[in-house]
Amino acid sequence: MKKNYLALLLLCCISKCALAQKESFDIIQFTGPAGWTKEIKNNRISYSVKNKNVWCQIGIFKSVTSKGTIEQDFESEWQELIVSTYHPAAGPKITDIPEKDGWKIKSGGSPFTFKQNNAVVMLTTISGYGKSVSIVAATNYTDYLTNVQQLIASIKLDKSDSQIISVLTPSETPKSSTNKNGFSYSSSNFDDGWTAIEKPDWVEVKKGEIKVLIHYANAVTNTYIPNRDVATTTAWNNLVAPRYSNLKNYFVFNNSLDPEAPYFVSGNATENSTGKTVYVVLFKRGKSNCIEFICADKNTFIKNFNVDQSKLEFYTTFEYWEPLKRMASYNKFAIANADFKGKWTNDFTGIQQYVNVYTGFDAGMSTYQSRENFQFSTGNLYKWDLTVASGMVGNIKGKTTKTNGKFSIASLWQMRFSDISGKPALYDAYFSCVKGGRVLWLSNTQYPGYTAFGKVN
User: Fold this and answer.
1) In CATH terms, is domain 3-168 a member of 3.40.1000.10?
2) I want to staple 73 with a disulfide (CB 3.0 to 4.6 A). Which of 28, 132, 171, 446 is the partner?
3) Looking at the domain 337-455, which fold is it?
4) The model's pTM
């Protein structure tokens, strides 16, 4: 039996997830999530899970006769399956996927309210060969999107000539637009409505009229300044002030018990590029980038980020800052085959000093150093090596492991290597932007934890 594969690429980073055995329903073959409650009705098969206050439901509907176009099929299914049942707050945010092998796919989602709590519902419609199939997923917990994506990724559709089409369907697919830095994707669409775009001096993150700038480190703001008042003023004057005028209600907060020494600077100002009066906040905590928030007014900022400058005090806890700090995580862009060229490396050094608890005298020092390299070349070839040196100073031992093979792009957010330390490996992967380049983040799905790699040639 001939098989064709239609890769539509996932938005979410997909981690390992236990799956049930393959199943068939109507013209659809798929693999459902293990441990979920399954229910079969005449026109659909559904899976559901609930854990305390979080839940998810996935429904795979029996194929129907196509109305002629993917647009007509999607709109009809949206009205019948989504609007009449979930009453979403707005129309769907649409993702169009290019046609392949005669199948067209359209995906869209919208927020809705269930028992006074926020949730999201998503519809994916696949149309071709006179038939239309739809998959509906609804959840109030974003972690379950991994399960949704894995189920949809496993779908195979039986068409009239007995060929099988394998479908990987995203909730959002960034458009490929190779930029001057040579990377394929310079924008990302997130399932909570935020959109990130790479800019020369920052990553611009937008949702509606709210704009957030994740500033890249530069020679001025990256310099350690022990006087916090001077550090705060320097950051504002370097990153924010040149683009605004008529500053009013200038506010500075940088006196906190928090060990990561946050600062928060705000004011009302005229945006030089638009002439609009806006409320601007510059925030930094710990090792986060300087993050600039631009809202129509202070109330809009408070409503969306739950941070009110009038409530800031010396004992403000670190949890209070999380809505602001988490915006740094939107500096995240998909991977593509063409992006992997040259050498990417990670260096790590750590030391531990020992002191005699009774005498206070020096009791020695241990050290750990490692360097991990990926060398990519044409034909999807790579060389990988890891060198480690560790032990007490004076008795340090080292070891180097090397492999080579071929890599492949599994999705927008995953890549496979044929041999890492003697066995195949699947990595979650994404890029973050820095001034004039990218940082590659890799996490072996068998040993989770992201490691940053910088390009050296």
Assistant:
1) yes
2) 132
3) Lipocalin (2.40.128)
4) 0.61
